């Protein structure tokens, strides 16, 4: 579809279990799904003209349980001089709804700060309260869901875009970490994951009996990596490769009621593609005259972001023999532009299991829209074989 064709279908209506969410923005990216108190589904994402621009802000829509269309769009953030990205919605144990998101100037991820604000429900829309910066250090980014440790501590997966004096961020020095809060998000301590250079978008999954696994995107565009914790997330092993390729794009994983691990991703790597671009923020490089950071790992950008696949594991996420194509396409992502029709990515998935045995998936569709796909319990049984 052309960008104009996509825009005409962005009405939020479910058709055969799929919808393009409504949005007034020409660029929509980085969906996050959360179940609200009462069971309704919320999707948050960032939208505006171009990733990194100051008009990028967080938007959200609600799909009421049993409804056949997503509700109206709410704008949840609006800093005038920052690109506000990567929303994470968290429903606290007391029922409060919180939004965490990043805020950065232009493409300078090493200057990003994490913000936090309360959300309330006003009929069919979410309403944001006043935001505040957390005390997480500059260069902190988020993407994965927040979880509660067995002692009540909040665990927020982080990746750290370590600032390099006088140098521009490239992703070469990014590492993974866990943010820990013992006071309901008022203050945070950062605990780094060992051996995690280039390993980002940490997605923890509870395996039961104090065991956890976490899954990672890789700047090196080689394979999805995995680490383990045997103490409810207090310490983590160094990330190690799984058998699923990764293209330096986001992943999402969750444990299903069956005990299987489900992961949605683009199972393609740099070894399988010659597509390359200079950096994530090619279109913004005129706004940053610092030289690129040196050292660290060698990030690879531009590998196709398609197909979008649902991968299933029966061994705690060590291997994923079942790989079901949710949607396929060219996956071209050599530019972030949403209007010229050249971007064809199917990327940045969010995954949320349903109580009835099905799953909800949301992802970026050609940088123009957020697409929602619902797989039923029968779909999941068929996919699992």
Automatic annotation (TrEMBL):
Q: Which residue ranges does the record assign to the Sialidase domain?
A: 39-361
Basic and acidic residues bias (residue ranges): 222-231
**Which key words are in the record?**
Glycosidase, Hydrolase
Q: For the region Disordered, what residue ranges are annotated?
A: 222-244
Does Hydrolase show up as a keyword for this record? yes
The UniProt record lists the EC number as 3.2.1.18
Q: What CDD domains does the annotation carry?
A: Sialidase_non-viral (cd15482)
Top EC class, one word: hydrolase
- Please give the superkingdom of this protein's source: Bacteria
Q: What are the protein's GO molecular function terms? A: exo-alpha-sialidase activity
Could you identify this protein by its name?
A: Exo-alpha-sialidase
């Amino acid at each position: 579809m052309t960008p104009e064709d996509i825009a005409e279908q962005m009405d939020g209506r479910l058709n055969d279990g799929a919808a393009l969410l409504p949005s007034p923005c020409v660029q929509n990216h980085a969906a996050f799904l959360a179940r609200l108190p009462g069971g309704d589904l919320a999707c948050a994402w960032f939208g505006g003209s171009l990733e990194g621009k100051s008009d990028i802000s967080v938007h959200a829509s609600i799909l009421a349980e049993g409804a056949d269309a997503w509700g109206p769009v709410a704008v949840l953030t609006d800093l005038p001089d920052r690109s506000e990205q990567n929303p994470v919605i968290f429903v606290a144990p007391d029922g409060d709804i919180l939004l965490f998101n990043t805020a950065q100037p232009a493409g300078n991820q090493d200057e990003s700060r994490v913000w936090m604000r309360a959300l309330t429900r006003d009929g069919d829309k979410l309403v944001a309260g006043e935001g505040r910066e957390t005390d997480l250090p500059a260069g902190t980014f988020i993407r994965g869901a927040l979880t509660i440790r067995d002692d009540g501590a909040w665990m927020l997966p982080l990746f750290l875009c370590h600032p390099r004096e006088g140098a521009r961020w490239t992703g070469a020095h990014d590492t993974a970490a866990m943010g820990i809060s013992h006071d309901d998000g008022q203050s945070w301590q950062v605990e780094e994951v060992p051996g995690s250079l280039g390993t980002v978008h940490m997605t923890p999954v509870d395996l039961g009996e104090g065991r956890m696994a976490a899954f990672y995107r890789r700047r090196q565009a080689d394979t999805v990596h995995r680490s383990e914790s045997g103490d409810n997330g207090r310490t983590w092993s160094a990330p190690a490769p799984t058998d699923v390729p990764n293209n330096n794009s986001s992943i999402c994983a969750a444990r299903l009621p069956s005990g299987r691990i489900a992961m949605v991703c683009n199972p393609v790597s740099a070894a399988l593609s010659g597509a390359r671009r200079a950096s994530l923020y090619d279109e913004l490089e005129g706004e940053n005259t610092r030289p690129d950071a040196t050292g660290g790992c060698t990030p690879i950008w531009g590998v196709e972001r398609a197909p979008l696949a649902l991968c299933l594991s029966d061994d705690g996420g060590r291997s994923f023999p079942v790989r079901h194509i949710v949607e396929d396409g060219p996956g071209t992502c050599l530019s972030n532009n949403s209007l010229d029709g050249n971007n064809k990515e199917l990327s940045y998935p969010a995954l949320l299991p349903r109580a009835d045995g099905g799953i909800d998936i949301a992802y970026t569709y050609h940088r123009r829209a957020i697409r929602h796909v619902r797989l039923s319990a029968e779909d999941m049984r068929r996919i699992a074989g």
